[in-house]
Amino acid sequence: MSVNSEIQTPRSARIAPEYTRNKGRKGNFEMYAWLFMRLSGLILVVLVFGHLFVNLMLGDGVHAINFGFVAGKWADPFWQVWDLAMLWLAMLHGTNGVRTIIEDYAEKDSTRFWFKMVLYVASAVIIVLGTLVIFTFDPCPANASAELLPSFCPAP
């Protein structure tokens, strides 16, 4: 048996396809996106479990969650910032994850572009609307009829 220092050509030409998509364009973006996923995931665990503990374990638990509970909670700037951080991190974390899936599975550049545009627009709309709800929520709106107001609102 002779020793041949040459590697034989594989029978299948598709043994190692060359990956050329987005070659050299991204720089360190993917590394920062990867790092963001890990850090935001850790922070989200703290935010979500804190949210669940306050809402479900303190007081009367799930039976106490109603309009008044949310109104009282969002009257405190601490809980507004807490819920805002949870909203923003969850949306950005999820958007980055879906972006990665699109990058992996969409083969055509145009398909990838449009999927990501729909993703980014949907994420931006949800972040903007959620932020507006958190900071403009008023349980006792002016000029509302008394029968529509919750019991804790002063009579108009």
Describe the 3D structure.
It holds the Pfam family Sdh_cyt. Its main location: membrane. It is found in: Membrane. The chain is 60% helix and 0% strand. By secondary structure, it is an all-alpha fold. The protein has a single domain (29-138), classed as 3 helical TM bundles of succinate and fumarate reductases (Up-down Bundle).
* Fourth-level CATH superfamily: Fumarate reductase/succinate dehydrogenase, transmembrane subunit
Major sheet characteristics? none
Shape: elongated
The CATH class label is Mainly Alpha
Structural class: mainly alpha
Quickly give the CATH architecture: Up-down Bundle
Number of strands: 0
Q: What Rg is obtained from the alpha carbons, in whole angstroms?
A: 26 Å
